[in-house]
């Protein structure tokens, strides 16, 4: 008989715990739409000082064209393959695209230019949810 992996009410995480988990990871998935169809892209990220999810992408990419000003989802998580435990955090928010990057570790750092052909994408969280995988 397979183990029951049904999440319990105790598995839900508060926003502060979600942000702590996000800060400790570096790869997630951005979810957006292209031609009214969902698209999911694995991508490296950093968490900004204000809780925003910071991405970098090629300026002329499909991702940048699709997300500028759009409501998007971002998910990150980890799963231990041996016992199946882990966590998943989802951020919903509007994406802003900029040619400059802010240091995600300092609230008042001066903006920095991106490498040639790259832009910053900032997802400003409107809803942050998460759960532990029992």
Question: Can you lay out the helices and strands and say which pair or pack?
Answer:
Blueprint: E1 12-13, H1 15-23, E2 27-34, E3 37-44, E4 46-47, E5 53-58, H2 62-67, E6 71-79, E7 86-98, E8 100-101, E9 112-113, E10 118-133
Antiparallel strand pairs: 1-10, 2-3, 2-6, 4-5, 5-10, 6-7, 7-10, 8-9
Pfam families: Pyridox_ox_2 (PF12900)
Protein name: Pyridoxamine 5'-phosphate oxidase family protein
List its salient traits.
Pnp Oxidase, Chain A; globular; mainly beta; 134 residues; 8-stranded antiparallel β-sheet
In short:
By secondary structure, the chain is mostly beta strands.
Tell me about this structure.
The radius of gyration is 16 Å and the shape is globular. It starts with 11 loop residues before the first strand and ends with a strand. It has a single domain (10-103, 111-133), classed as Pnp Oxidase, Chain A, CATH 2.30.110. Strand 6 and strand 7 (86-98) form a beta hairpin. Strands 1, 2, 3, 4, 5, 6, 7 and 10 form an 8-stranded antiparallel sheet that branches. The chain has a two-stranded antiparallel ribbon with strand order 8-9. By secondary structure, the chain is mainly β. It has 2 helices and 10 strands.
């Amino acid at each position: 008989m397979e183990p029951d992996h049904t999440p319990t009410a105790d598995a839900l995480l508060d926003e502060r715990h979600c942000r702590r988990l996000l800060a400790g990871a570096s790869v997630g998935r951005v979810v957006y739409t292209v031609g009214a169809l969902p698209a999911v892209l694995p991508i490296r990220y950093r968490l900004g000082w204000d809780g925003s999810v910071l991405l970098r992408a090629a300026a002329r990419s499909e991702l940048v064209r699709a997300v500028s000003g759009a409501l998007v989802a971002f998910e990150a998580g980890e799963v231990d393959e041996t016992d199946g435990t882990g966590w998943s955090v989802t951020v919903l928010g509007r994406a802003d695209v900029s040619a400059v990057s802010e240091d995600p570790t300092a609230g008042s750092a001066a903006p920095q230019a991106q490498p040639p052909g790259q832009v910053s994408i900032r997802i400003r969280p409107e809803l942050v949810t998460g759960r532990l995988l029992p």
